[in-house]
Design goal:
single chain; 322 residues; mainly beta; Immunoglobulin-like; 3 domains; 5-stranded antiparallel beta sheet; 4-stranded antiparallel beta sheet
């Protein structure tokens, strides 16, 4: 490259790989109990393209499951099967050829086995507590038992915790919070007449850095904040300053006086939000102040309400400001 001043720059060895590929995410849901449809998603293709199956299980006829077979197709996602007609279990292999003669092949086996629920753990509140969601798009929970827990768990095991299945909203999901950190095992029974053992590690919040520097100016102050922890990014940690109202004994927004309600997320309505990893300048507030952090955790399943979030929030005070 040469610019207007005659300066030249050379960049070599840049390989461009734009060959035709097929996504390995071939199996899409087609209902409960492991029912699937085939989803063919090519990339870097020139439309139209054709599809040729080279292997498929007994009971599968490509034309029956997609009347447009073998093409030509120009969609970015071509389906074989539907919720009314899921594909049979077995191995599927096919080759895709685009309009330029480029080809790609792939194979995928659909097993006639139902996998157990997935687990999503949120850390907190505190260094020794966590919360949990179990969920599956293949079945509904009919019963969940806690069959193993750490010594710090105050209840007895095994214990039926089915009340935390979200029966009234989405019985494919189970939620439980206030779990002490440690190793757990849950045994779940499902609407597909299957039983699954799920092992889960609950972790608490581990703060690796909490640097807070307050620099006072004439009638205001700057606040530098650098806070690092092990929270999941989707726990949405937020930071803010609040002011204590001695008349009502509530923590409030320092300017508007809007009361902070426990279990609410920090927002511009109930706090002055701070930027983490930066100096927040000219904070012109006085009185009894605190710097706090809110984080998202799972509710208990029995506390779920239709059209309301599945999460709640816990608040941690990082520093009192005078």
């Amino acid at each position: 490259m040469t610019d207007n001043c005659g300066q030249t720059s050379t960049l070599e060895g840049n390989e461009i790989d734009r060959k035709l590929t097929i996504s390995s995410d071939l199996l899409w849901g087609a209902g409960l109990c492991g029912k699937r449809r085939l989803s063919i998603k090519p990339s870097n293709f020139t439309a139209p393209f054709t599809i040729n199956f080279t292997d498929f299980p007994a009971g599968f006829d490509p034309v029956t499951y997609n009347s447009g077979y073998p093409g030509p197709f120009d969609e970015e996602n071509v389906f074989f099967g539907s919720t009314e007609m899921p594909i049979p279990a077995g191995n599927y292999a096919f080759t895709l050829v685009d309009a330029c003669g480029n080809s790609a092949s792939i194979s995928k086996e659909l097993l006639d086995v139902l996998s157990g629920p997935g687990a999503t753990v949120y850390k907190g509140c505190g260094p020794d507590m966590g919360s949990l969601q179990l969920n599956s798009f293949d079945f509904e929970f009919t019963k969940v038992e806690l069959t193993k827990a750490p010594a710090s768990y105050t209840g007895t095991v095994p214990v039926d915790v089915s009340q935390n299945i979200s029966f009234s909203i989405d019985p494919r999901r189970f939620f439980m919070n206030n779990l002490p950190a440690g190793e757990y095992e849950f045994t779940s029974s499902t609407s597909c007449k299957t039983t699954h053992l799920t092992k889960v590690t609950i972790e608490g919040v581990n703060v690796t850095e909490n640097k807070i520097e307050v620099t006072e100016n004439c009638g205001a102050f700057n606040l530098y904040l650098k806070h690092e922890d092990n929270l999941n990014s989707n726990q949405a940690p937020l930071f803010g300053i609040q002011k204590f109202d001695p008349v009502t004994s509530n923590w409030t927004h320092p300017v508007t006086g809007q009361v902070y309600n426990p279990a609410d997320e920090l927002s511009n309505e109930n706090a002055v939000l701070m930027v983490n990893g930066a100096s927040n300048i000219n904070q012109n507030y006085s009185g009894k102040l605190r710097l706090v952090k809110s984080m998202r955790i799972w509710k208990n399943g029995e506390d779920m309400v239709l059209n309301r979030p599945q999460t709640t929030y816990c608040l941690e005070t990082l520093k009192h400001l005078k």
